[in-house]
Design goal:
Blueprint lengths: L2 H27 L6 H15 L4 H14 L9 H14 L5 H13 L3 H13 L7 H13 L3 H13 L7 H12 L8 H15 L3 H13 L7 H20 L5 H18 L7 H13 L3 H13 L7 H13 L3 H13 L7 H13 L3 H13 L7 H13 L3 H13 L7 H13 L3 H13 L7 H13 L3 H13 L1
InterPro entries: ISR_Activator, Sel1-like, TPR-like_helical_dom_sf
Pfam families: Sel1
Length: about 475
């Protein structure tokens, strides 16, 4: 072997040692166990790419030590770490599925619970082998009996859906609870009882209960929070709802539309699954067609901004109108915005005012601010500074950052109230912390000129910088002044 090859082999050996050490540290330091597998895969890819390492070469080094059992870091307690990392190479398709299947099969037959679970996943999804639900069930059962909570959860799904085994609702329920028993105890007894009641209904294919179970998992109500499981239950409810709609089963359609909406929301925000704007659009569309007002509003937003579909302002207006007619406060505000700016419809300030008012009365903080703007500037109604101040106050106290900015502006300039620079400063501060670029600029101005607070050029610069980074032109101009004099 040439000296270059020997040096390269030693380099790979050293890299693997540090990789295992770093991975061990990552395991003991992690707090996000729900996303650990995904994060670990991303971490591993980063380490390989950043160090310009060929995954196949590093895999060969790992396999050699696995066969010979001669690598210190793969002994005793660290053998688990090494095996998991090796499995991770396979499991995320860094090499090829079939090698991962063979590796897990070998460990699974030796009683390794994690490998038994991974092997079941291979059979269930066809990773490196043909799909075989009976064998998937067998290995989920073996792993579940070895106290693997993920396997117990999947075993429950097998019993619920009849995957590789005859349906058995009682066993499904028992295994679902067994899977959760490994996690911290739920303190609220009533919520736990409600969860278990709805879980039984969900197992029996009640679509509404399936949506509720998803909600419980998403928010940690009666059960430990688990966004991936929430997504899975929303999917069951949503797909079941689609089948009902296909068979025109009347009133049942609306009852499962919420599950379809929740599934769209998960896809839109990457909750329990990868973010997928097209899938989000499709499920919002399905739910909206089944009458869900929240989905109708979100579908309008997708059309308005070209999210998951082509931009179509007329379609956006139509879905906002549909949702607003069903009482959705956000859609009423969005419809007002369409009328105010001629989006998908002709400009009509009076109609904009009317819809802002409807939305504000229904509690929407953004609409309260927009209504304040209407009164402040006389859009769709007469100028009335006292009412402008009143609605800005309602928006600000509801936590809306632009409402907080506008309230600060009213206090600074005596609009609808007495001038009060200290209160102006306080509301600008709240707005700035919440991320409003205008609030950040005015806060910087307050610090720069000693308005409502002591003069502090350093703090002024910090807030101008934040505002400039958020696109505020005045802040960018003021920053130029600071850079010139520094």
């Amino acid at each position: 072997m040439s000296s270059n090859l020997i040096d390269k082999a030693k380099e790979d050996e050293n890299f693997l040692k540090y990789l295992l050490k770093d991975f061990y540290c990552k395991i003991i330091e992690t707090n996000d166990f729900n996303n650990f597998e995904k994060n670990s895969s991303e971490w591993l890819n980063y380490k390989l790419e950043n160090n310009n390492k060929n995954p196949k070469k590093i895999l060969e080094v790992m396999e050699n030590h696995e066969e010979k059992d001669s690598f210190n870091l793969l002994r005793n307690k660290n053998v688990i770490i090494g095996k998991y990392l090796l499995s991770l190479f396979y499991y995320k398709d860094i090499i090829i599925d079939i090698e991962g299947f063979n590796y897990n099969q070998k460990l699974a037959k030796n009683g390794d619970s994690a490998a038994q679970y991974d092997l079941a996943i291979c059979y269930k999804n066809g990773y490196g082998i043909e799909i075989n639900f009976e064998k998937a069930f067998k290995w989920f059962l073996n792993s579940a009996e070895n106290e693997n909570p993920d396997a117990q959860y999947n075993l429950a799904i097998c019993y619920m859906d009849g995957l590789g085994i005859q349906k058995d609702q009682k066993k499904a329920f028992d295994w679902f609870l067994a899977a959760e028993s490994k996690y911290p105890v739920i303190p609220n007894k009533i919520e736990k009882e409600i969860f278990e009641r709805d879980l039984k209904l969900a197992i029996a294919n009640n679509l509404i209960a399936q949506n509720y179970v998803g909600h419980y998992y998403q928010n940690g109500r009666g059960i430990n929070k688990n966004e991936k499981k929430a997504f899975e239950w929303y999917m069951k409810s949503a797909v079941g709802g689609y089948e009902i709609a296909q068979n025109n089963l009347g009133d049942s359609i609306a009852k499962c539309a919420e599950g379809q909406y929740n599934l769209g929301y998960c896809y839109s925000n990457g909750i329990g699954t990868d973010k997928d704007e097209e899938a989000a659009f499709e499920w919002y569309f399905e739910s909206a067609g089944n009458g869900n007002a929240m989905a109708q509003n979100n579908l309008g937003y997708c059309y308005s901004n070209g999210i998951g579909t082509d931009k179509d302002e007329e379609a956006a207006f139509e879905w906002y109108f549909e949702s607003a007619g069903n009482g959705n406060a956000m859609a009423q505000n969005n419809l007002g915005y369409c009328y105010a700016n001629g989006i998908g419809i002709y400009e009509d300030e009076e109609s904009a005012f009317d819809f802002y008012l409807d939305s504000a009365v229904n509690g929407n903080a953004m609409a309260k601010n927009n209504l304040g703007d209407c009164y402040h500037h006389g859009k769709g109604t007469d100028i009335n500074e006292a009412k402008a101040f009143e609605w800005y106050m309602k928006s600000a106290t509801a936590g809306y950052d632009k409402g907080q900015y506008n309230l600060g502006y009213c206090y600074e300039n005596g609009i609808g109230t007495d001038e009060d620079e200290e209160k102006a400063f306080e509301w600008y501060l709240k707005s700035a912390i919440a991320g409003c670029a205008e609030g950040q600029y005015n806060l910087g101005y307050c610090y720069g000129n000693g308005i409502g607070t002591d003069k502090d050029e350093e703090k002024a610069f910090v807030w101008y910088l934040k505002s400039a980074e958020n696109g505020n032109a005045m802040a960018q101009k003021n920053l130029g002044y600071y850079y010139q004099v520094s």
